[in-house]
Structures are given as C-alpha cells and as structure tokens.
C-alpha cells in the first residue's frame, strides 16, 4: 500500500518562487452593504451538467434586505424558478450572474451598474431555510463557475508531491 503526500498549490509556490499577489476582485458583494457576508454554502461543481451539486454560493443575509448587482450588465431574466423570484444579469465578459430569492426592482433589458439595487431578498424559503440567504450563481455558456473567484478568492488545489 503506497502513501501519497499532498501539498496545497498555494503553498507549492514557495518551491518555485514568491506567491502570486491576491487576485483582484471583479465583483462587489450583492448583500451586506459592501462588507463580505458569511458564506452559508460554498460552490460544489456537478460532475455532469445534470448531476448533483451546488451551482453557486449562498450568502447569509436578512429577508427584505437589498440585493445589488455584482457588476455592470444587462438584466436578461426576471421571473420565478421553482417558486422563487430570480434575476439574472449578463455582464460584458459573457458571465451571467443569477440571484435568488429576489423580489425584483428591475425589468428585462434594464442596464444596471455595479452596486445598483436590483431587488430585495424575497420571503420564499431558500437554500438556507429557516434562515435567509441569497443564492448567487455564475455561468458562462453552459459552464457553471465558482462565484468566489470573481471576488478575488483563490481556489486551493491539492497536488501530489513526487
């Protein structure tokens, strides 16, 4: 039986040189008034497009609280999915951010700016019931993306050490 040792990729940089600076945040937090809210549930990519997973992050907040656009874009969806109010904004880089549950204050085709109020946290039970949270998704084409990367977070990847 062999043993494989793993090291975090972020630490592996010490073997080849100084670590890279933190990634720049491209998005602003959609809840919490600009401060980083608690992440109630992280992104968990499905192995297959149709498979189980968590296709976004859940951010702790309060029912009725404001929801703002993470970046400039155009509202490309406003409606209800699975009984919850949803809003999607498509950004210039082709990434679509989706927010739920949201009582929308915007309409399809509206241009929104980073930090602009797009609605409020809806009364529907969401992923965090009985607590309230905002589910924030990110997608480019058919591919779900980890929204945390747009806030400047780096994903730690474990690699085998020879």
From TrEMBL:
Gene3D superfamilies xref list: Glucose Permease (Domain IIA) (2.70.70.10)
Residue ranges occupied by any M23ase beta-sheet core domain in the UniProt entry: 53-147
GO molecular function, one term: metalloendopeptidase activity
Keywords: Signal
CDD domains xref list: M23_peptidase
Alphabetized InterPro entries for the sequence: Cell_wall_metabolism_enzyme, Dup_hybrid_motif, M23ase_b-sheet_dom
PANTHER family to which the protein is assigned, alphabetical: L-ALA--D-GLU ENDOPEPTIDASE (PTHR21666:SF289), PEPTIDASE-RELATED (PTHR21666)
Protein name: Peptidase M23
Organism classification: Bacteria, Bacillati, Actinomycetota, Actinomycetes, Micrococcales
